[in-house]
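Tokens help. One example:
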Amino acid sequence: MSNAFRANELIHDWNALKAPKKPKKIELNDETLRDGLQSPSITDPPIEQKIKALHLMAELGVAAANIGMPTGPRSKQDAIALAREIARHKLNIRPNCAARTAIPDVTAVIEVSQAAGISVEASTFLGSSGIRKLAEGWDLDVMRKHTETAVKLAVQNKLPVMFVTEDTTRAHPQTLKKLYRTALDCGAYRITLADTVGHATPLGVKNLIRFVKTEVVKGYENVQIDWHGHNDRGLALANSLAAFEAGAHCVHGTILGIGERVGNTALDQLLVNLKLLDWIDNDLRKLPEYVELVAKYCNGPLPFNYPVMGRDAFRTSTGVHAAAIVKAKQKGDDFLANRIYSGVPSDLFGRNQEIEIGPASGHHNVEFWLHSRGIKPTPQMIEAILQRAKQSRTVLSEEELQRVVEMK
């Protein structure tokens, strides 16, 4: 019996009723090494760790990676090293670099591409909302001129161009239409809709993408639409899924959601949900390694209750929960054990179910703990451990449990 058949037999999935169709195209652009590093609380990691991250992206099936904004000596050096690594190992990743719609920024991307000997996409960006125009003192003619100059320079130097409007989700439709069409007319092949300040809701995302598809890119061939979201309202993941549903071809994100202010779409959570929706079939067992790298070397926040990758995601000390997991394991049924008290199968994402012993534990917790360490349980030993656990305010540590065992 296949796992898919068992899942359908054992689990009635209300999520599948009137579920959206699988998008025709799904790509991910990893912004961890650019937008992710802009957080004031994040550490820019050594190039060795950036290279390791790049290889993990490739193993996880990420299509594109922003390798930096090469406007300073170190950022430029790192971008060249990453681009060379992609070329040397023929990694299946499309590199891009961020650049303002300014000649020095675009020139820096051209130099990265030439130094590495591979094509590097110029991700040229420009603020588009009325509030930004007022603050900068821009008018639409000036904005279109900046766009035209930057895109033409990149195209003349044989770089693919992604044109990004910052603050798209608060911009006037006609402003967006004129800016995007200027970029497309100058040779951009990809446009990015950016929720720069995390303003959008899922409905807003769908409305915006619908407008872009019908009013902006209609008549242009093979234009790719990207979505770049921030998490200020806590909606970045939902918005990213809505973007795919609405027809976006590529969604941007960062591992652990690191980035400006409260951060970007959490790329790890997006990968998990795309896998569970059966929209991708990527092997994600290396995802914990990538998350741990960002947590360690970038000072990325990884709370104990963080979805799927947090310490407690597949960890329980509750007697009822542990009993169900143990009974499944006693049947030799890992499929059942990984789903009986978890909406996310741990094995798909390189994790395991863990059973601890604490104040809410029962004898199944203790027996499992003892068996997993090759210790033959006795009634006296089980009772002693449970008594110790009931007196504790927290889960018992390995050392505490070993001391109780030694006493029995």
